[in-house]
Amino acid sequence: MVLRRPELARPIVTGQAPRPGRRRGVTVRPFPPSRRLVVAAVRAGRRILPMHGLLEVDVTEARRLLAVHDPPLSTTAFVVAAVARAAAAHPAVHAYRDWRGRLVQHHYVDVQTLVEVPTDEGAFGLVHVVRDADVRGVADITDELRAAKDPASTPAGRALTRFAPAAGRIPGLFPLMYAVMGRSVRAHLRSGTVQVTAVGMFAGGGGFAIAPPTLASLIVVVGGLDRRPRAVGDRIVVRDVLDLTVTVDHDVVDGAPATRFGAELRRLMEDPATVGLTEWSPPRR
Q1: Chain-centroid distance, C-alpha 173
Q2: What is the mean pLDDT of each run of 10 residues along the chain (285 residues)?
Q3: How far apart are CA 94 and CA 85, in angstroms?
Q4: Sign of the alpha-carbon dihedral angle for 230, 265, 140, 42
Q5: Which of 25, 57, 165, 204 makes a 20 to 30 Å CA pair with 258?
Q6: Alpha-carbon distance 191 to 130, whole Å?
Q7: What CATH code would you report for 48-148+184-275?
């Protein structure tokens, strides 16, 4: 038998004593049902073997064209349109396997993106699916994303407010739901195969971000944006550079196709006219 002195079993920490007169404490509350959805989705993504690529994209011209519209167009909508077109040109990057192990490729591109909406538990990133994003313009997608900020305007938003609080209290329901959806062709037809998330845009400055895989086979995370020196022809000029992280499922696609997708994505974003983003002029009255 080994006897242990009580003081030796306590963690050894150093530091000053708490400030006198300050109230110190913690708040304990139930885990929000909306966060249970996120936890279940991330756990379902463990089936994916992620392979990451980092891209620096010159978006100087794209930002200028986005800003001249009245009102300005959404940077997220521009990225969604470019990613969808690149995925349509390289469909292997958003393929997945079904329950029988077969490889499934979609002939169109639906893109998931996160729209921050208010809930009783605070702001929540609601998944909104942009249908047929590979053939739609930036202005059209911008209008849809802005309308989706009202939870009552979309089926997903209404389900979040009506059913998620009650469903989140049923043990194991969300993990089971996402486990079934992960290999279901019907679920992918509804939820899309590509995800664009703009978590890094809110931090300011440059930098890459990596998001955990969920149900989407292809994930593009929009990181930071800042001004950097770039070689343009024989000159060094300062340009607006956007950092992107591309994540694919290495179980279904190798590095070479993923690299070609990344090159196509950079080409589209650096030539905004290829996604229908051109000069804008006010309508005549």
Answers
A1: 24
A2: 54 78 85 74 76 94 93 93 97 90 92 78 76 95 88 56 56 59 72 83 73 86 91 91 94 92 97 87 62
A3: 12
A4: negative
A5: 204
A6: 9
A7: 3.30.559.10
